[in-house]
């Protein structure tokens, strides 16, 4: 099968069109276009897509292409950790988002310091980091974090703390839907917000979409799938097991 024959290509092209990005063949490669800008892409990140997560995977690619082209992370040479920490928040994305973002970075000839900063969360998900300015946010790139002279663990800890303080969660709820764009990201603070439910074997959670976090114990797989299919920005259709600050497919 040639790249042009890939069964997911029409759906990816349609998603890109909604954000005014063009995808054109260039021999055996591709050109990603936005207005007058052109980004040569050697190959598309469509290999080994889990059929159960196709829509989320495709949306992750389209969203990453858009972010890397329209709103690329910026270096801030004069910024120290104290200044950088205040608006820092985590975002949970599919791992394919990070791969697609860095494809654009490479195609644009940007250095490794412009690659996305991320941390593995498990179950094909990653934690990325953003500076939230209220009306927009920028993804944190490795070079910006390097300027803070700190570790990824510290960046992660600061982002988690900021998210925990952002909104008070009712520890008794089974669903978090604050609508602030960070509900799926609150999966990374489950151990803090719902510590009484996390047993030695872990806790069932789900992040069907960006604006929803489901917390067990005992989540219905069909209900999670239905929530995923209804999500505006789907992330994961599976029940996950949260344990030791990571997740895995449950079952």
What report would you give on this structure?
- The protein is globular, with a radius of gyration of 18 Å.
- Strand 9 (203-209) and strand 10 (212-215) form a beta hairpin.
- The protein contains eight helices and twelve strands.
- The protein has a five-stranded antiparallel sheet with strand order 8-10-9-11-12.
- The mean pLDDT is 92.
- The protein is α+β, with helices and mostly antiparallel strands and 251 residues long.
- The chain has two domains: 3-163, no CATH class; 168-249, no CATH class.
- The longest helix has 17 residues, at 54-70.
Overall outline:
globular
**Lateral strand order in the biggest sheet:** 8-10-9-11-12
Order of helices and strands: HEEEHHEHEEEHHEHEEHEE
CA gyration radius, whole angstroms: 18 Å
Q: How far is it from the N-terminal to the C-terminal residue, by CA? A: 33 Å
Structural class: alpha+beta
Number of helices: 8
Percentage of residues assigned to helices: 25-40%
């Amino acid at each position: 099968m040639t790249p042009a024959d890939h069964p997911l290509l029409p759906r990816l092209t349609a998603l890109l069109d909604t954000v005014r990005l063009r995808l054109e063949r260039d021999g055996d490669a591709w050109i990603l276009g936005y207005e007058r800008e052109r980004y040569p892409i050697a190959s598309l990140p469509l290999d080994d897509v889990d059929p159960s997560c196709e829509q989320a995977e495709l949306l992750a690619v389209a969203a990453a292409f858009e972010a890397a082209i329209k709103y690329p992370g910026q270096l801030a040479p004069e910024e120290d950790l104290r200044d950088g920490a205040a608006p820092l928040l985590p975002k949970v994305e599919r791992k394919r988002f990070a791969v697609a973002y860095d494809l654009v970075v490479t195609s644009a000839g940007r250095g490794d310091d412009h690659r996305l900063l991320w941390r593995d969360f498990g179950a094909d998900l990653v934690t990325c980091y953003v500076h939230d300015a209220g009306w927009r946010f920028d993804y944190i790139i490795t070079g910006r974090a390097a300027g803070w002279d700190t570790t990824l663990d510290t960046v992660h800890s600061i982002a988690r703390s900021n998210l925990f303080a952002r909104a008070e969660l009712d520890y008794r709820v089974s669903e978090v839907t604050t609508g602030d764009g960070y509900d799926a990201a609150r999966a990374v603070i489950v151990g803090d917000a719902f510590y009484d439910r996390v047993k030695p074997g872990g806790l069932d959670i789900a992040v069907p979409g960006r604006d929803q976090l489901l917390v067990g114990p005992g989540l219905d797989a069909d209900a999670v799938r239905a929530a995923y299919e209804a999500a505006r920005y789907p992330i994961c259709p599976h029940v996950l097991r949260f344990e030791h600050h990571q997740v895995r497919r449950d079952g």
